[in-house]
Amino acid sequence: MRICRFKNKSGQARIGLAAEAETLLDLTAANITQLQSLLESDGAATQLKEMAKRELPRVAVAEVEFCAPVEAQEIWAAGVTYERSKTERMKESDFSASAYDRVYEAERPELFFKALAEKVVATGEAVGIRGDARWNVPEPELALVLNSKGRIVGYTIGNDMSSRDIEGENLLYLPQAKVYARSCALGPWIRIGADEAAARNWEIRLNIQRGGKSVFKGETTVGRIKRRFEELAGYLFRSQIFPHGAVLLTGTGIVPSETFTLEEGDVVEIEIAGIGLLRNPVKVV
Question: What is the pTM of this model?
Answer without folding.
Answer: 0.94
